[in-house]
Fold these 2 entries.
Entry 1:
Amino acid sequence: MLTTSAPVTDNDGTTKTIEAALDALDFLRRHGAGLCDLLGLLAEETAFDALCDLHGQSGSDLPDVRRIRRSLRSIRAALAARSTHANDALSVRKGYCVDTSVRWYGARISDLLVAFR
């Protein structure tokens, strides 16, 4: 038997998960170009594909909440898997502080994921 919990709503009836998805898309609108550059620099294909999935949801009035959450999790996992040593080596080669960017985007995406709970 498949059971699902009822969505948590605020006073005007808007579901919290939809608000979380819309917040994630707003973050993408504001910071997606930088995240795209970072994922390209890191050569993280899975995370880049997840970012493309997010971008595909950006024009939707009612986004696919599960797809957005799954994409955010994939990006966060790719960023979390990066070693500081690898980031530092890449920073030296590219002249760009990769570790700081990885940590900043990772923290923001983690914050966005908390809102889905």
Note: The first helix runs from residue 16 to 42.
Entry 2:
Amino acid sequence: MGFITYNKLIKKVRIYFLIYFLILSGILLSSCKKSVNWDVECYTVEEKIFKTDFSNCETVEFNDHQDKIQRTDSLSSEWDLLQTHHCVGDFRISYEDGDRDQRYAEICADPTDPDNDVIKFKIIEPHIREGTHKKGRVQFNLNDNQCIKEFYQKVRLYIHPDMEYLKQWDEKVHWLSIAEFWNNANFAGERNPFRVTVSLFKLDEGPVDEMYFAVVGDRDIRIGGWDPIWVEINEDFSVPFGTWMEIEMYLLEGDEDSGRFYMSVTPVGGEKTILFDVHNTTQHPREKHADGYTHINPLKLYTSDKLIEFMSENDKNLEIYWDDWEFWRNKSID
């Protein structure tokens, strides 16, 4: 075989290999899940999916990193109905890792009314390994959902008075999440992951007088981590500690023209304050299939090892309480 003929053969092999590689890449990309329900037909009738006041309930271990909730006064309950609802794939209390000495959720007495049952989320020490650091998590998981494109929830929240001590910390606080909504979840293998996260923020280092509610809409850019598309911080309302407040949240799937996030707070004995009314994208900018919020953490306590250790080293409780939780789909808000 001549030198020129040999070179032509090598070029052809390279071209064939390139074509094969491109075809294979296309197959792999197309096989990545668009969403768990991208091709499901959904109706738009307003529906209350669930409501509870946590009375006569208990948490029970489901496996080593999840709990479930059941009633103590009957064999069947609203929790069973939630678990079997056609729009909810699965409901659990999730910790990801660790044991009860490090974190837990439990039904307990209201800190302001011993006759009222509520649910408490508590983190004692970091229990989840992430790279060279750890973190802590207690949250409700509504996973593998279908047809939840417009989500509304109302719940009462009580932040333990000890958590006000975070105002004295030398560090800023940008990671203390209390709710999260996934429009395509990266951990579920869906394409174009996007999330909306509600958090408590401390904006400055050193002692401060106030902490604030914040909400972030960000997209997963894979190698580079998370890229915030929009961030809202309400500095006109100081987070109240040691008192109950009613929280309303509303989320509508859409692009920068049609998406919306709304949140209001009404402290006991106080007036209703609209914290956020964001009209912006609530899905990944590249999203072509409007498929709803497949994974939702409606109630959550999630933060870093440094924050957890600061609280524990100063003998302070890192815990929040929830009560009177209800959520709807296809429920609009003015």
Note: The radius of gyration is 23 Å.
